[in-house]
Amino acid sequence: MRPGERAGLLTPADLRRRRRKNVFIFGLVLATVLISLVATVLAVNNGRNYRRLVRQAGLEHYLLPAAPPPRLRVDRQRQIPPRGLYPSRLLQPRLERGATFLAAPDSSPSESCDNLDASGKEEASFKSVQGDWECLFYREFGSAPEPASLFIQARGSEADNLRTFRIKLSLTDSSQDRAVVKAAMESVNLFGLALSPESRAYLSERLPARREFNSVVENYRMTFSREMTDERRFNLLILPRPMTAGCDSTATAAGAGAHAQTYHLSVGCLALRPGTLGKPQS
């Protein structure tokens, strides 16, 4: 055998290696074709077959992307108009009226009690014992068989401390309702109750209308109620709200906190005009 022919001969080992190589190449091509077919089948319909297969295998938490969070939609909050919840004067865009400071009455409780009847026909009863005083006043209106009447009882201590103020209105004669209410409001003014014009108008509207109420009016608790035995008779009870001993940090630091008295006062919010913030007021 010639040397060239011997070099072209393959040994059995060479044949086995070539056969394995051909089988590997064929298997790789076949696997590529099968994978392409499977991928095509799973990818159709936007991957619906793939997702179904993953869910059947229970691997959706690992092989499927997490669902996007739901879109949050924030609706505009509906503004509830505050009308009806607050006095109308606090909702106006401007200052309705300037502050009015009234001087304290110079008359003593006994003088105020004596001045309850301007006509001088009725006489008030005033008693004072060890600093505590009481004023009683009764007046009839009209000449009806059952005349309308007004009864006032005021109690206090010292000259400027009013503890209770009670008015009993007997509106038994409708023709005298206005006169009885007017006399009741004048008695409130005589004893120097610190009420704003709006609070006085609040009383003037409800007393003749016989509208019962239980309200905190500035520094006072007021109750207007009908008597159970007679619907024509009403009681107006005015009690000053309790005061507390104390003061702010400035007065306490100065050593005056133990002698100061703080009165609770309900204050309404006032709207400022645009452009006035930060500017000194003349």
UniProtKB/TrEMBL annotation:
<dbReference type="Pfam" id="PF19495">
    <property type="entry name" value="DUF6030"/>
</dbReference>
<dbReference type="InterPro" id="IPR046071">
    <property type="entry name" value="DUF6030"/>
</dbReference>
<keyword id="KW-1133">Transmembrane helix</keyword>
<feature type="transmembrane region" description="Helical">
    <location>
        <begin position="23"/>
        <end position="44"/>
    </location>
</feature>
<keyword id="KW-0472">Membrane</keyword>
<keyword id="KW-0812">Transmembrane</keyword>
<protein>
    <recommendedName>
        <fullName>Exopolysaccharide biosynthesis protein</fullName>
    </recommendedName>
</protein>
